[in-house]
Design goal:
With 159 residues, the chain is α+β, with helices and mostly antiparallel strands. It has a domain of 111 residues: Aminopeptidase. The protein is built from four helices and six strands. The N terminus is likely disordered.
Length: 159
C-alpha cells in the first residue's frame, strides 16, 4: 500500500503526511503515523487537551487500558503526541474503536480521519469497525464513513 502523503511504501506501518493549517494556510510539521503504545503521561496530556472524557486522574488505569489493547496508532508532530486511536480487535471479524483523541490545536486538520483510516488499513476489509460515540461527537462519525446503528446494547461500568 502506498503512503497517501509521499506515495512511497514504508516499512513498519510508518506513514508521513504533511498537513496544512486550515485557518492561516501555513505549513505544519510532518505528521507521522505509526503503531506504538505511547507513554502514559503523554496519553494523559493528549486526553486533557483533546477534551475526551477518560479517567485521566488514574494513571494506572490509563496504562492498563493501553497495555490490554492490541491496536494503537499514534499521530506525532516530531516527538509530540498529537493524536491517538486505541482499539481492541481479533483482526478478522470485529474491531472496537475505543478511543480517538486529537490535541485541540491539531483538530480539524484531518488527523482523526487519518487515524481511523490507519485503523481500517490494519484490520482489513473483512473486519467490522464499531464504536460508541460521545454525545458531542455524534455528528463527526458519519462524516468519516461510520453508519449509525440502533441494534446495540450496553451494560455500563460501575466506576
Amino acid at each position: 500500500m502506498l503512503c497517501p502523503g509521499c506515495q512511497d511504501t514504508h516499512v513498519e506501518s510508518v506513514w508521513k503526511i504533511t498537513h496544512w493549517h486550515v485557518t492561516c494556510q501555513r505549513k505544519m510539521n510532518e505528521i507521522i503515523y505509526r503503531r506504538e503504545i505511547p507513554l502514559t503521561d503523554d496519553i494523559i496530556e493528549l486526553y486533557k487537551s483533546s477534551g475526551i472524557n477518560r479517567p485521566i486522574e488514574d494513571h494506572d488505569r490509563i496504562e492498563l487500558m493501553y497495555k490490554n489493547s492490541n491496536l494503537v496508532v499514534t499521530a506525532r508532530d516530531g516527538d509530540r503526541l498529537v493524536g491517538v486511536v486505541r482499539s481492541l480487535t481479533d483482526l478478522c471479524y470485529c474491531c472496537y474503536l475505543s478511543d480517538l483523541a486529537v490535541r485541540a490545536d491539531y483538530q480539524r486538520l484531518g488527523i482523526g480521519s487519518e487515524l481511523i483510516r490507519q485503523t481500517k488499513h490494519h484490520i482489513g476489509d473483512q473486519t467490522t469497525l464499531l464504536l460508541l460515540s460521545a454525545p458531542g461527537a455524534m455528528d463527526y462519525y458519519p462524516k468519516v464513513g461510520f453508519e449509525e446503528v440502533s441494534n446495540g446494547y450496553i451494560i455500563h461500568r460501575k466506576h
